[in-house]
Design goal:
The complex is a heterotrimer of chains A (165), B (361) and C (507).
Chain A lengths: L2 E2 L2 E2 L4 H17 L4 H24 L4 H10 L5 H4 L7 H21 L1 H16 L4 H22 L14
Antiparallel strand pairs in A: 1-2
Chain B lengths: L4 H5 L6 H15 L3 H10 L14 H7 L6 E5 L6 H15 L7 E5 L6 H8 L7 E4 L4 H9 L10 E5 L6 E6 L7 H10 L2 E4 L6 H13 L3 E4 L5 H10 L5 E4 H9 L3 E6 L28 E4 L5 H16 L1 H9 L9 H23 L2
Parallel strand pairs in B: 1-2, 1-3, 6-7
Antiparallel strand pairs in B: 3-10, 4-10, 5-8, 5-9
Chain C lengths: L1 H11 L2 H19 L5 H13 L3 H26 L8 H12 L3 H26 L3 H7 L2 H16 L6 H15 L2 E2 L6 E2 L13 H20 L7 H5 L3 H10 L1 H16 L5 H15 L2 H4 L8 H16 L1 H7 L5 H12 L8 H4 L1 H24 L1 H5 L6 H18 L5 H18 L5 H23 L11 H37 L1
Antiparallel strand pairs in C: 1-2
Helix pairs in contact in C: 1-20, 2-4, 2-20, 3-4, 3-18, 4-5, 4-6, 4-16, 4-18, 4-20, 5-6, 5-16, 6-12, 6-13, 6-16, 6-20, 8-24, 8-25, 9-24, 10-22, 10-23, 13-14, 13-16, 14-16, 22-23
The chains are: A mainly alpha (165), B alpha/beta (361), C mainly alpha (507).
């Protein structure tokens, strides 16, 4: 994997992302009245400093190692190498399943998303026999329907495509 | 899709779960119920999957009878306040007076001095399954602040009111050095009086602003409390000098000896030993009321409003509710949808008069 | 006074009352175990049923529900890293690692017994202070509340061993998220970017389901296998071993119960604060060599929050009953049941309905002991959940988690929040950011800010308001001490080390 200043490039991502989010937050905060922005803007400024420290401390430079050692000793370089790493692609696939399921709920509603997701996840990700997939998909749907619709009489979200608001 | 209330009423299947499945099959076999047909056309491909049939039931049920499932009753304030107590006490009685078995579930949505609750209600499906209690005239202030895009009170489908409008009382904590209204005036001459209130847009906040304007008291608002119990406790605790709140809520604390009532803004108050609006020489304070209309999203069929309105009226006339109301110093009468609409219009004109003070605090 | 207690017990010891109490307990246990559902949903479901009951029976039923929920919540928190209800998120921090080591049974056993003992200690303290409870509630105004929140944030962010910087970062991020939504003090909404859902802020429970449950399911997807990586140790699980652990760590139980009792009595503070504070204080109080094992499966990390949660349930009745200010949604729904039965929450309730209230407190305690026993009975079968195939377990858990998240208030946006926080939670684990601080910041952020502004309004803009009030001054001192002491201790240690080094060299 590509390394910058001795650290895999992915390890910088959270801090960089957070820095961007905080910057947007700060810009937004300054559109509010002084009273309304006082506390949020204060927190955001402190965050800018803390996240910058985090970013620097992740580099394998002298100053980075010093910062890490004093502020976050659990992240010292020697401890980092022992951490087990999983392939990035595998992690992206796992996140995609979650995103896909949430999107399905939004679009086609809970009662269709549940069997669709359980079935396809077991089939594609889990590589189970077809009948097992169908069985679990049906069981999951029945469970959700019984609990939420019948027992709690809640209207399960019908999905944007089917008239949900 | 439109049916007369009687037609909606005449089906009263008992167990909702069984009814839903059977209703579906009946609709499917007959194949003429326009609601079901409309429903299926939207289903597209999924319509072919027979297994799916059992699962979707609500629209079909709705076409058969009302109510066929739980009704959400939105309360724009936190649990524990006056509005909340009203709904929570009356909802169970009201549901017994509905033509079919269904629960009325109170839902507290607290953000934005109630404005989020009301704009959510404004955009809910007008199917009679979402109704809400309103805080008037407070909601007019919020509407003016939000601009026309949030909601328009004039467009709601009105159902009735929960009781007569209540007048306001001014009170201080039991340990406060302020012993009577003259002390309040004297303090105002020295420094602004601190009032604990909810957000800037609440009815109680409006009452504090208007009444202090009328009485010529200097005020400083301590905003942000989460409902009437919360800000009255704040006054007891000494966070603020005083609080202004509706009669029923105040009396709860006064009976326990935790607050001392110093003035009533009703024209003629029954509480002994304190000045009322007449004695204060400001009879216009009597116009300051908190009204509790109940409404449904714009476009809710009139037939459904009538069903809900009659359930509400019957609930308010229930002996249990009448006794409870008497214990809590309120008069429980309802209004018809038309009377409620008229009341809201009248409150709007009251609000228009005070708008300049309420919008520039 | 004493006869009121006894009347309360007497009323409860009837067949019908006990039957409804047990029914409530089982429903509470079940609802507590399902993320998104919990005491509030269970009570709302049972509310229509209570209309036909005598007030006393209705209270026995409600007490049963409220006593059963925490136990149910801790079971899923330990087995699946999926806190059934929000306060149990603290239990998951050490409970789930234990499950991964094949010690789920031990953790559940400890949670069950800590639950009971915490509940009993909570009851005793509440019974002792009930007559003066009103005064305690009145001691906490905006300045005290603000400083309490600040103290909570400081305690929790100094807890994660060796992760001070990243703990502060996640805390700061939590605060930023907490400020989203309507601003109660000066009006208008903030950081909502035109999304109406956000007016009410980011809802806590969907966020927690994401941070813990969904994050772990992503992890299971990536990792495969099963929750427990040591099948042999799952199979030798004994019911009693967890029980013994609780008795062995009695200072932890006691500390947790007392924290729970105090936090519960402060109006508007929920169980999450109680359980996280208790967890953090336990870590802070642990011996130096013991501290590193927290977060990796230290049994005390399970005992501390569980003891606090049940103790808090009891004392949080005080603000709810005496002032009508509920600490959470569950209490709000419970207030509805009280109102329906003609008991108006407020200052008169404790005077007019003493017998019922004492009965309720006993019911709550009885139910939590009963729920613990049920939990202990289930230790063995439940532990086997950790041996299930992850590829099947993860989709099933996610279905319930997402549906539960939607069901909280029937808003589909909750599902989006859950998914987003699931990814955030996964990234936090992956890049080693502690989740402790983000939770407490999410819970306390908005009310801390509100109380800060209110304090400034009260004190006419002068900071001296925080010093002029005894409790707020004490809280301020405690906060400063907490920040300064570790630094001083580290400096002393270093000086001592240097001295030893010098002496060695001299020798």
């Amino acid at each position: 994997m590509k390394r910058v200043l001795g650290t895999p490039v992915t390890d910088y991502m959270p801090a960089l992302g957070l820095l961007a989010v905080t910057a947007i937050y700060l810009v937004t905060a300054y559109q509010y009245s002084p009273d309304a922005r006082a506390v949020p803007a204060g927190v955001a400024w402190v965050m800018m400093i803390l996240v910058s420290f985090d970013l620097v401390s992740r580099t394998r430079t002298k100053i980075g190692a010093t910062l890490m050692h004093w502020l976050n000793p659990a992240g010292d370089a020697d401890k980092q190498d022992a951490v087990k790493r999983y392939p990035v692609l595998k992690q992206i696939v796992a996140v995609a399943w979650i995103a896909g399921f949430a999107a399905a709920m939004l679009l086609i509603g809970i009662l269709y998303a549940v069997p669709l997701y359980v079935f396809s996840s077991l089939l594609i990700q889990g590589r189970r026999p077809l009948l097992v997939c169908i069985g679990f998909a049906a069981a999951a749907t029945l469970m959700i329907w019984l609990l939420f619709d019948v027992v709690l009489s809640l209207e399960l979200y019908p999905g944007i495509l089917f008239g949900g608001a | 899709m439109k049916k007369s209330p009687e037609a909606i009423l005449d089906r009263t299947d008992a167990a909702p779960a069984l009814a839903s499945a059977s209703a579906y099959w009946r609709g499917w076999v007959r194949g003429v119920d326009p609601a079901v047909v409309h429903h299926w056309s939207r289903r597209g491909l999924f319509a072919a999957l027979g297994a799916a049939v059992i699962f979707d039931s609500h629209q079909a049920r709705a076409a058969e009878k009302f109510p066929a499932r739980n009704i959400q009753f939105i309360i724009p304030y936190a649990a524990g306040g006056g509005f909340d107590a009203y709904v929570r006490y009356i909802a169970p009685v009201m549901e017994q007076n509905l033509p079919a078995r269904a629960s009325i579930v109170p839902v507290n949505i607290t953000a934005g001095s109630g404005s989020r609750a009301i704009s959510q209600l404004y955009r809910s499906k007008p199917d009679g399954y979402t109704i809400g209690i309103f805080d008037v005239p407070g909601m007019f202030i919020e509407q003016a602040l939000q601009g026309s895009n949030a909601y328009d009170l004039a467009k709601f489908a009105w159902i009735g009111t929960m009781g007569e409008g209540e007048r306001y009382l001014l009170a201080v904590g039991a340990n406060s050095p302020l012993k009577n209204f003259a002390d309040v005036r004297a303090l105002s001459a020295k420094r602004p009086i601190k009032f604990a209130v909810t957000g800037l847009e609440g009815t109680a906040t409006a009452a504090a602003i208007i009444s202090t304007e009328v009485l010529g008291l200097r005020r400083q608002l301590i905003t942000g409390y989460r409902g009437s119990s919360d800000y009255i406790v704040a006054a007891i605790r000494g966070d603020a000098d005083a609080a202004i709140s509706a009669t029923s809520t105040m009396m709860k604390f006064a009976r326990a000896g935790q607050i001392r009532i110093l003035a009533s803004f009703a024209a003629h108050s029954a509480i002994p030993g304190i000045p009322d609006a007449t004695a204060l020489g400001k009879p216009e304070l009597d116009q300051l009321t908190v009204e509790r209309p109940v409404g449904a999203p714009p476009g809710t069929p009139a037939g459904l409003c009538v069903i809900l309105s009659s359930a509400l009226a019957k609930a308010l006339a229930d002996r249990k509710v009448v006794t409870w109301a008497a214990e809590n110093d309120v008069i429980m009468t309802s209004r018809t949808p038309q009377q409620t609409a008229a009341l809201v219009a009248q409150q709007e004109s009251f609000f228009e008069r005070w708008k300049p003070w309420l919008l520039h605090v | 006074m004493l006869d009121m207690w006894l009347h309360g017990i007497e009323g409860l010891l009837q067949f019908r009352e006990l039957a409804f109490l047990a029914l409530g307990m089982f429903i509470g246990l079940f609802f507590g175990a399902i993320p998104g559902l919990g005491g509030a949903a269970a009570l709302a479901l049972l509310m229509p049923l209570t209309y036909g009951l005598e007030p006393f029976t209705a209270l026995a039923l409600s007490g049963g529900v409220m006593g059963g929920v925490p136990m149910g919540g801790s079971i899923t928190a330990i087995l699946l890293n999926t806190p059934g209800s929000a306060p149990n998120a603290a239990t998951a921090i050490d409970g789930y690692p234990l499950a991964q080591q094949g010690k789920a049974g031990l953790a559940i056993g400890a949670a069950a017994s800590a639950n009971s003992i915490g509940g009993i200690i909570g009851t005793v303290s509440v019974l002792a202070i009930l007559p003066v409870a009103k005064n305690i509630v009145l001691l906490f105004g905006p300045p005290e509340f603000f400083l309490l929140a600040l103290l909570g944030l400081v305690i929790v962010s100094t807890t994660s061993r060796g992760k001070l910087l990243r703990g502060l970062i996640t805390g700061g991020f939590g605060l930023m998220v907490a400020f989203i939504g309507y601003n109660d003090v000066s009006g208008g909404e903030r950081f909502t970017y035109g999304i109406e859902y956000l007016w009410d802020g980011v809802h806590l429970v969907p966020a927690l389901i994401g941070l813990f449950a969904v994050a772990e399911m992503i992890n299971l997807y990536v990792k495969g296998g099963s929750v427990a990586n040591n099948a042999a140790s799952v199979k030798i699980t004994k019911m009693t071993s967890g029980l013994m652990q609780t008795f062995r760590h009695w200072p932890t139980v006691l500390r947790g119960s007392l924290i729970g009792t105090v936090v519960g009595a402060v109006p508007g503070v929920g169980g999450v604060v109680a359980s996280f504070l208790s967890y953090s204080m336990t870590v802070q109080a642990a011996k130096e060599q013991d501290r590193d094992s927290f977060g990796k499966g230290n049994i005390k990390g399970v005992i501390a929050p569980e003891a606090a949660i049940n103790a808090k349930d009891c004392s949080s009745l005080i603000p709810t009953l005496a002032f009508g200010i509920p600490g959470g949604v569950e209490m709000a729904v419970f207030m509805g049941i009280l109102i329906v039965h003609g008991m108006q929450p407020g200052p008169l309730l404790l005077v007019d309905h003493q017998v019922e209230i004492y009965g309720l407190i006993w019911a709550l305690t009885a139910s939590c002991v009963l729920a613990s026993f049920t939990g202990l009975m289930l230790v063995k079968p439940l532990s086997y959940v950790t041996l299930l195939d992850a590829q099947i377990l993860a989709p099933m858990v996610l279905c319930v988690a997402f549906a539960g998240s939607y069901a909280i208030d029937m808003t589909i946006e909750n599902v989006i929040v859950t998914a987003v926080f699931g990814v955030i939670g996964y990234l936090m684990v992956r890049f080693d950011y502690p989740r402790l601080t983000i939770v407490i910041a999410l819970v306390l952020g908005a009310s801390a800010e509100r109380n800060f502004h209110q304090s400034m309004l009260m004190g006419d803009g002068k900071w001296s308001i925080y010093l002029n009030r005894p409790i707020s001054a004490a809280l301020l001192a405690a906060t400063i001490a907490l920040l300064v002491i570790p630094v001083v201790r580290a400096m002393l240690n270093q000086a001592a080390n240097r001295k030893i080094l010098v002496e060695k060299e001299a020798a």
